[in-house]
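Retro notes - structure team

What went well: the batch runner handled both jobs without manual restarts.
What didn't: labels got mixed up in the shared folder, which is why I'm recording both outputs here explicitly, each with its sequence directly above its C-alpha cells.

Job 1
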Amino acid sequence: MSALVALLQNDLEACNRTIVARMDSPVTLIPQLAAHIVAAGGKRLRPLLTLACARLCGYAGERHVKLAACVEFIHTATLLHDDVVDESLLRRGLASANAVFGNQASVLVGDFLFARAFQLMVEDGSLQVLGILSQAAATIAEGEVLQLMNAGNAAIDERSYFDVIERKTAKLFEAAARLGAVLGGADAAREEAFGRYGMRLGTAFQIMDDVLDYEGDAAVIGKNLGDDLGEGKMTLPLIRALAVGTADDAAVIRHAIGGGGLTDFAPVMAALARTGALAYARERAASAARDAAHCLEGLAPSPAAESLLQLTGFAVDRRS
C-alpha cells in the first residue's frame, strides 16, 4: 500500500481535497457526521485503484480525481448504512457514526453521500462512466439485501457466499479499476482485464476480512472479534467447517448462527481449528489474489503496474 500511496500522492491529495469540499453542506449535521467517518481513516483503496489504473492506461487529464472521490463516496455511504443494519458500535477502532449520531442521521447522511456521488458522475458527463458506477451502486445494494436475507441461515453454501461478497464488496473494486481503463481509452480487452483484476482483488479482501473477524487483532482491525458471528453471518470459515466437520462441529455452528452468537465464540473457534477452516479460507483468498495478479499480465513494466501487483499480496497478508 505504501508504494502505491507514494506513487499517487499528488492525485490522492487532490482526491482528498475533493472529498472534503463535497462533504460540505449548510445543514451542519451532514459535514459533522461525514467528517466523523472520514476522520476515522481508511485505506482509500478503491479510489487508489481508479487513480492507478488511469495512470497505467496513459490518462493525463483531471477527471480521474473527481471519479476517485465519487467511488469513495459510494463506499462511505455503504459503510454508514452497513453499520446501521449491523448495529455496529465500532468502525476502524472508533465509535461508529450511528453510535455517535444515531441511526436516523447515519442513514440520511449516507443518502446524501450517494447523492453527491451521482452529482460527480453527472459532472463528468460520460454515459459510460455513469453506467459503470450506477450499475455498481445497484449491485452493492443487491448484495447487502442478499446478506440480510441470509442472516441466521446456517444452510448457506459457498456459491451463495461468493454471490454476496462479489456483489457487496468486489463490485466496487471492479468498477473502480474499470473506470481507470475507460478514462485512459483502453481497448475492450484491457478494460475487461482491469475489471477482472478489481473483482478478484475485492474478493480476496473480503475473504480476508471474514478470516480476520476470527483471528485478527481487535486493536488493529478496529472492530470486535466475532462481530460477524454475533450478527448471524455465515462466512466462508463457518461454511467450510460445517461442510467438513463432525456432527458436533456442525451443531456448534448452527447454534451460534441461529442465535448463540458471541456466547458460542470459543466453541466455534475450536471447531474452526479442528477443521482447518481458517487456513482453507486464507487459501481461497490467496487463489483470488493470484487470479487478480494474472489479469495484469502483458502490462509494460512500470511503478504503477508493480504497485498493483504488490497489492494482490497485501490483500492476503494484511492484518487489518
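Job 2
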Amino acid sequence: MLAIHTKGESFAAGWVEYCRENRIPFKEVNCFSNDIMSQIDGCIALFWHWGHTDYRANLFVRQLIASVEARGVLVFPGTTTCWHYDDKVGQKYLLEAVGAPMVQSYVFYDRGQAMRWLDQAKFPLVWKLRGGAGSQNVRLVRNLQEARAIVRRSFGRGWRSSRFHALREKFWHFHRRPGLGSFFDIGRGLGRAVIPHPVYREQSIERNYVYFQDFIPENDHDIRVIVIGERAISIKRMTREGDFRASGSGVIIHAKDAIPEDCIRVAFDVTKMIGSQCCAFDFVRDGSDWKIIEISYAFSLAGYIDCPGYWTSDLSWHPARVRPEYFMVEDVVSLLKAKNILAR
C-alpha cells in the first residue's frame, strides 16, 4: 500500500487520481501528525509534496523523510531528491561537486571577506536569497555601491521575502491578460499586502550570508527542463519587458523545436549524477554553452499541461499527453515491482 499526504501541494491530487485509475492501494496520511510513523504501518512508499513557503513543513520535513527511509520505506521525494530544495547555496555546492555546467556563483559568510571580494568583482551581478521561487528574492545589482549596501544589510538586520512580491505579480498578470479573474486576484493581493498571510508572518530572517551569481547578458528567455526518471519535459520561458528574469513571467512556449537538445542531455546527465528521482533545471545561454542557474524537485504543474510530449534518456521524442504526477507514481511503482516489494 502507498501512503499519500493528500493535503499538500498540487502533485497530491494527481497521485491519488493515478492510484484510483490503476487500482493501486493507497491510504491518506497526515505528515504533520504526531503519529505519522504509526499511520504508515504496512505502507511501502510515502508521497508528500510540500511547497517552499510551507514554514511548518520546513521545520521537520527533511528529518522525517530520512527517518522514514531508515525504516525501509521508499519516499517521494527522497532525501537525495529534496535536501537542496529551495536552497540555492546548497545547490551551488552540489552542482560544483558533480562538475555540472552552472552559472558561476559566490557565497560568503563573513562581511569583510564579501566586501573585499566586491572590490574586484565585475558588475552587474545577480543577488539572491537562498530561498524563493518565481523570481522572488532575486535582484540585479548594477554597481559596487548597491552591492555593498546588500552586504551590509545581509550581515545586519537581514532580509525577509517581501509580501508585496505576490501583489506585483498579480499586476503583471493582469497587464498581460486582463480579465475578471486577474482583476479579483489584485483585490485579494491588496488584502494580503495589508494583512499578511501566515507564510510571511512566520518567515525567519535571512542573515549572516550573502550569495551572488554572475549575470549572463543577452538572454530574453530561459529553458526549463524537468527530468522524472527516464523522461524529460521542457518549456521555453520568455522574460518580461525590461526584466532579465524569466521565472514567473507566465510567457511560455511549449513547442518541441524551441528546446535545445543540449539542455535535455545535460539535465539527464546531472539528474543521474546527483541521484534525483525528479529534478527541474533552469538554463540560460552563455555564449555557445547552456548553463544551469538553479534546480528544484518541485514545480508548478500549470505551465506543463500543454507540453506536446517528452524525451527519454536516449533523447528520443515521444508525442504524448504529459502528466508529471503520473510519471512520479509510475517510477515508484516500477521500482517497488523490480525489488519484488509490490506484486507485478
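One thing worth noting from job 2: The longest helix spans residues 180-194.
We'll revisit the folder naming next retro.
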